[in-house]
Amino acid sequence: MNDVIIVGGGPVGLLLAGELRLAGADPLVLEASDGAVRRSRSFGLRGINGRTSQSLRLRGLTEEFSRAQKEVSGVSRLLKGNRARGHFAGLPLVEDEVPSGAAGGFVLKQHVLERILAAWAIGLGVRVRTGCEVVDLVQEDSAVRAVLADGRSERAAYLVGCDGGRSVVRKRAGIAFPGTDATMTGRVALAELADPDAVRSTMHGPGGMVQTSLVPGEISTMEFDGGPGDRDAPLTAEEMQASISRVAGVDVEVVRFEGGIRFGDNTRLAATYRQGRVLLAGDAAHVHSPIGGQGLNLGLQDAMNLGWKLGLVVRGLAPESLLDTYTAERRPVGERVLRNTRAQVALLRPGPQVAALREVLAEALEIPAAKRHFIAMGNGADIDYAPDATHPLVGRFAPLPLVSEDGRALLVARGDEVRAAVKGRVRLVEADSDQAFLMRPDGYVAWAAPDGETAGLAEALAFVAGRVYKVKRPFKM
Question: Can you tell me the distance from the alpha carbon of 227 to that of 211, in angstroms, rounded to the nearest whole number?
Fold first, then answer.
């Protein structure tokens, strides 16, 4: 029997699989497509924000992402150095000064992202099977069984649905998915206009949004027409041409068309991220408008949070109740992202009232504190898993640029007494600081105290490394 089955071999499923492998579990990834189908649906660029970049740096992956980003034409104008960049409903967010230890983001095609994560995960020993469509699942007393389209089945102690917004796993597990229906239609196509200069790219046009220059060779539009209808119907050149003409307010001719996709702002959040032995991550747990590019990052952070926890439980080093902290920590983050993406869609609507609201918000964003707030929100840098903690570091991302390629928790402290006390699944990092802290495998701080204080450390060590973790003796830092 497998330790964990991951349904879906996209970026979230692959990152989760690697995290589980680092945690000592043996995951099996089941991907429905044969690879070529997934690549053919990869339109536009995928943004890796500052927080996710920090997570990838933990695993030593940022150099690979930097090399891949250089292959993307025109990306230098989107990201420059280590400046915090982005937008909120088209209102620019640029800050020259970023916090110490922060990381710049990346922009690249999704199939390139998947290629890097697949190579990393497979290199760790992860098994990935393509052409395996999961059509049903059955929860048993001590396992869960995934039923494949060809009649075969696979069993595992746990199963994680990373199978997108139409998740079969979520539906078969009976997890509610409340939210709001789409109000707009977005279209992205590989296309070329007879007169490219006839259309001016804008996020706030009189008929909606049109972009002809963000990604070379692609054109995108967004219209507030009640939703995309049948998203699976092929997008045609005629439909794309008509949409561009309506939004731009001028007649255009599409002279090259190589396919496209539709999207909407259907916004939903799973009632829980866990139902027994079944868990959800990525779009299977939350869907929303792609405006702002937060969806991929939200899912990748799900994977970072879940991987080490599920690994401990599967290995019998932690009780099942540890998995309840996954929903408790990640679902509120999902709620915040859904809220701000709904707000961004509202701000993109055409009309004088919304235009006035954008102008007022643009003025507010000139206030440095307000700008920092919005930048942190868009980059996931405002996440706090322990808002009621007495120490300001606890629950926040580690304040130092650290690397843990083996996925272990890190105790950042100083002194021989600490070295004698820490072993196994927690690694000591010497730091010349008057603050000591324990970093979870996902980069967040589980415990912190001024030098010389150790109250709560033993409990935190057990939380991040398992109940069999032992501290040799009481000690002082």
Answer: 19
